[in-house]
Amino acid sequence: MLGDVGDQAADGYLQGALFGRYPDDAVLSEETKDDLERTKNRVAWIVDPLDGTKEYASGRHDWAVHVGLAVDEKPVLGVVALPSIDRVMVATIASDGSGKAELLGVGGEWPADFVADAGPNAGAVGDAPLRLAASRSHTPDWMQKFAAGMGNAELVPCGSVGFKVAMLMFGKADIYVHKIGLKEWDTCAPEVIARAAGYVVCRFDGKDHRYNQANARNDELVVCRPWLQDRVLAVLRSVGA
Question: How would DSSP label each residue in 176-216?
Answer without folding.
Answer: EEE-SS-BHHHHHHHHHHHHHTT-EEE-TTSPPP--S-SS-
